[in-house]
């Protein structure tokens, strides 16, 4: 039996790649001046971490839902 979609390695790897690209762009837009100016606080770093979590979650959720729709049509 295949693993449940929520645990599939390929879905997580794809979501991670997307999160790295999108998260980097968003972090640069939102915190780039503070990062380059070396004036980041610990709170700001937490916000940067969350900036990467959002595209990861959206990508992962979308992939799982897409898989469910494909399987439902079969």
What would you note in describing this structure?
Helix 1 (9-36) packs antiparallel against helix 2. With 74 residues, this protein is an all-alpha fold. The protein has two helices and no strands.
Topology diagram in text:
Blueprint: H1 9-36, H2 42-73
Task: Give a quick set of tags describing it.
74 residues; mainly alpha; elongated
The percent range for helix content is: over 70%
SSE-based structural type: mainly alpha
Tally of structural domains: 1
Helical run tally: 2
User: How many beta-strand runs?
Assistant: 0
Q: What's the pLDDT, averaged over the residues? A: 92
SSE string, helix = H, strand = E? HH
Query: What kind of sheet is the major sheet?
Result: none
The CA-CA distance between the termini, in Å, is 17 Å
Shape: elongated
The stretches of 5 or more residues where confidence is low (pLDDT under 50) are none
Radius of gyration: 16 Å
Portion of residues in beta strands equals under 5%
Question: What is this entry, summarized?
Answer:
The protein is mainly alpha-helical.
């Amino acid at each position: 039996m295949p693993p449940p979609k929520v645990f599939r390695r390929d879905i997580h790897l794809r979501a991670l790649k997307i999160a790295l690209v999108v998260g980097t762009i968003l972090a640069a837009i939102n915190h780039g001046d503070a990062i380059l100016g070396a004036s980041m606080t610990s709170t700001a770093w937490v916000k940067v971490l969350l900036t990467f979590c959002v595209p990861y979650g959206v990508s992962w959720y979308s992939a799982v839902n897409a898989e469910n729709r494909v399987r439902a049509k079969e």
